[in-house]
Amino acid sequence: MTLSKQEMPKQSYLVESEQILHSDIKKQIMQLFSLSSSSAENIDEFIDDISDNFISAGDASSDVDLDSLAAKFCDSKVPSQPANFENYLEYLVDNVIAHSIHTASPKFIGHMTSALPSFMQPLAKLMTAMNQNSVKIETAKSLSFYERQALAMLHRQIYNFSDNFYSEHIQNSQSTLGILTSGGTTANITAMWCYRNAVLGAKDDFFGVEKEGLTAALNFYGYKGAAIIGSELMHFSFDKAADLLGIGNRGLIKIPVDSNNRMRVRSLRQAVAKCLQENLCIIAIIGIAGTTDSGGVDPLLDIAKIACEANVHFHVDAAWGGPLIFSQQHRYKLAGIEQANSVTIDGHKQLYLPMGIGMLFLREPQMAQSIEKQASYTMRKGSFDLGKRALEGSRPGMALFLHAGLNLIGSKGYEFLIDEGIRKTQYMAARICAMPEFELLAEPDTNLLIYRYIPEPLRDVVAKKQLTEIDNLFISQFNERLQKSQRQAGRTFISRTMKSTTCFSQEISIVALRAVLANPLTTEDDIDAVLNDQIQIASEISLSAYNGLKNQDSLLDCVS
Ligand SMILES: *Cc1c(COP(=O)(O)O)cnc(C)c1O
């Protein structure tokens, strides 16, 4: 790639020049909108080059530190003159692209964002060229029906209703089989919104929570408050939902999990009974299919049964684990998902779609009518406007990626991707168990793995299962330093989280390393390289850590 290097100031792409006349601005701006712009082709080539280099980078990121990065972005003036594109691109390469995360790198195995199939990039270009707005028919047209079709396909994969069911609802403007959102967060909030409005809906001379507000609704129905129940590992989108819907974070009831991160069913039963006793309105019970922390799957069948007995809506947050439904081998792990009133699945996680796609699926096609809104300029009753039963307004035609993914990858393709991810997770788990340097912290349900590094002097104690709370604090502190150093070095990447565990019959919280094995390009060699990188980094920090171990009291002070 050859960018012409003009006398460009290092700090800023903005070339301050003399006053440019109004007529010049007009010419320049109209040029930007012109179809025959001569620079457009060049730009395309540059961008393709930059993209290819970026995607094929092997390491996880650059080793720049965050403070010096922040310092690059401190100018808050809007440049008065249009910048030259080549200069701007050079600025972009040096300052932004050079320090972005290589999410497609085979050694970036710490988050739920990974490589994309190659057809997504050209489709993204097409989507921008078409610039549809899926909020309403008048700005999207065919895309609205196309989106409904793609959502119906996944609905069928989850619920597998009859042909008749799908012919009746797939393109019926009164029915909503799914809602396309910007992510799992919005999907989860939308589900809670539907249920709040349905549970506290209109009755007799009461117009429902939607019109009269939460206080009036609770009063009318004789409740003292409202609650959402799920495991303590619920994604924080439910905190947002409880807050936004007026339920309050105290109304989010968190049930403890077992050592494999699955909700304790007995505690759930007790919590439901307590809500009824205290006259709290249960908006929904949540089951998680693949927790964000550790990939654990809640006992969905048991939860479905409890929700059914209590006559409460059952929502499954399968943002991460949902695509296991494609796998003959692993689908059984989600047994019970088909009994959920609704299911969240993220497209931008294990469906390998670009960032910005989540979905909510509804068992009852009429459920979304509880959140329906009209607007006089559009969103008319009976219309196909997708925005009338959605939290979001204007949104891009992301259905393009979803529909293309389902067709170009297919259910067999998704099955392969899921099976591979889980196979590699089992490989990594076996490696961790075989290496004295590491301890596996939970048996993986899906393709997330939590483990930790054990500093040499404590390995015997771990083997004998005699770690004290102070030992654990020391190991946690060590792992936090290890993860931060690894992130800073940028060669490989693993994230970290907290896990609760029992230590001499006491509940304590420990730092865990978290691997996410979703990138199809990650090989067993890459996994070995990541673990070896951690051992290497650990050997560099162990000396100062020994000193900390000698003075455990002061260590306790600095951790707590
Ligand atoms: C990622 C995730 C979410 C949130 O989805 P976003 O797409 O990040 O908004 C919700 N729940 C679970 C279990 C997740 O893994």
A few lines on this structure:
This protein is of the alpha/beta class and 560 residues long.
The assigned CATH architecture of the domain at 414-557 is Alpha-Beta Complex
Number of helices: 20
Q: Taking all residues together, what is the mean pLDDT?
A: 91
Contiguous uncertain segments of 5+ residues: 1-12, 553-560
Structural class call reads alpha/beta
What features would you describe in this structure?
This protein has 560 residues and is α/β, with parallel strands linked by helices. Among the domains are: 118-169 and 176-183 and 347-408, no CATH class; 194-317, Aspartate Aminotransferase, domain 2 (3-Layer(aba) Sandwich); 414-557, Aspartate Aminotransferase, domain 1 (Alpha-Beta Complex), CATH 3.90.1150.10. Helices cover 43% and strands 12% of the residues. It contains 20 helices and 11 strands. It has helices spanning 22-33, 38-56, 66-71, 85-95, 120-130, 137-140, 142-159, 163-169, 184-199, 209-212, 214-221, 237-244, 265-277, 300-309, 399-408, 410-434, 459-463, 469-489, 524-550, 552-559, and strands at residues 178-181, 225-231, 252-255, 280-288, 314-317, 342-346, 358-362, 438-440, 448-453, 495-503, 506-516. The chain has a 7-stranded mixed β-sheet, with helices on both faces. A 4-stranded antiparallel β-sheet has the order 8-9-11-10, covered by helices on one side. Helix 9 packs parallel to helix 12 (237-244), helix 15 packs across helix 16 (410-434) and helix 18 (469-489) crosses helix 19. The longest helix is centred in the last third of the chain and has 27 residues, at 524-550. It is globular, with a radius of gyration of 26 Å. Bound molecules: pyridoxal-5'-phosphate (PLP). Pyridoxal-5'-phosphate is lined by residues 112, 183-185, 188, 235, 237, 288, 290-292, 317, 319-320, 346, 358. Pyridoxal-5'-phosphate (PLP) binds at residues 112, 183-185, 188, 235, 237, 288, 290-292, 317, 319-320, 346, 358.
